Amino acid sequence: MDFPYIVEPRRDTGLYNAKLGIWLFLASEVMLFGALFSAYVLLRVGAEPGMWPHGWLNVPVGTANTIVLITSSITTVLAWVSCQTRQFGRFRFYHACTLLLALTFVCIKSYEYHDKFTHYEFTLANGKFADGHLVEKSRDFNLAQKTGSVILHGREVEREVELMDLHRPEARHLQHVEITIPATGIKKMERYGPWHHTYLAIYFTLTGLHALHVICGAVVIGFLWGPGAKMWQTDPKRFTNRIEISGLFWHFVDLVWIFLFPVLYLL
Amino acid sequence: MSDHELTAHETHSVRGYIFVFIALLAGTGLTVWASFIHFGSQEINIAVALTIATVKAFLVVAYFMHLISERKMIYCVMGFTAFFFAAMMGLTLWSLAPNNLVHT
Question: Quick check: A250 and B60 in contact, CB under 8 A?
């Protein structure tokens, strides 16, 4: 059974099936991310005064990822133009670039996640707070039994609120040093995971969902670059439509990041 | 369209895409630069960053996604989406106002 309007557009709408389908899908995606942005606003406004973090994420790394996604957007659109002008070699080149850029984005994001999962906040028995990356745990370290010690590369502060705004001039001048903390001096230790702070909860939710979109997009792009490219020989117009559809999804992924970057990294 | 016309048309559109790409990179630089400047209040800084992000988003949607030259049906779908998105954000902001039904 042949379905109509797979390649040629309908006369009344001027659209082929997949194009209408992807725009409807993107509409639902707008509402999905919109709901999470709405949650971000509520969490941020609802935070105790001075307890919403600033400067917890690495701005140069986030900027690099933004540039990677913007570059992947233009390589995607150039791949589609190459299909339209029947330059299959160029298409393969631009699509390979997009794929590599997508993988670069995921690698950078993984590095950022790893950085957060090796970052700890310690509530000390003396009422102070220690914060930084874990360098070493002694073999006998056991917090419950209060044995051993940990070495942290970070700093010690009097109040937890001092760990929130790292853009403050005083916070910028704080030196990071290696601190050895015995288990007996630790009341509580916690990684910078989603459970640590509502900011991190919404950060991991938003960027995790976005990264999932990047991975799914990369799988589709990879398929169209590899085994799916056989269609170019039999039905180049339909193949070009497929590139357009995958491109629309990819631009949407870029679009979401355009808002995520300032909201999570800069504001 | 003849092959010659098609090539001329595509060269023109490729130039447009490159222009948008450069504008997006410049917008990214501007966003980062603006975030390190204190405009007087946190609200103004948020407004500046979101304005730049909106302009960048417009460039992506209008030119990379070709919404500027799309069909009526797509405008209809996106119009509904924009309405419901705005309503959701509006309700979110409204819920934060101190004297509304949510808090009584």
Answer: no
Digit-coded pLDDT (tens) for A195-244: 999 999 999 999 999 999 999 999 999 999 999 999 999 999 999 999 99
* A98 CB-near residues (< 8 Å, 6+ apart): A72, A75, A76, A79, A221, A250
Residue A223's Cα: distance from chain center in Å? 22
CA distance B97 to chain A (A): 11
Distance CA A26, CA A217 (A): 13
pTM for this structure? 0.91
d(CA A127, CA A187): 9
In chain A the domains, ranked by start, together with CATH numbers, are 30-116+196-266 (1.20.120.80), 119-191 (2.30.30)
Write the ipTM.
0.89
Choose the closest CB to B57 out of A37, A63, A255: A255
Q: How far apart are CA A226 and CA A209, in angstroms?
A: 26
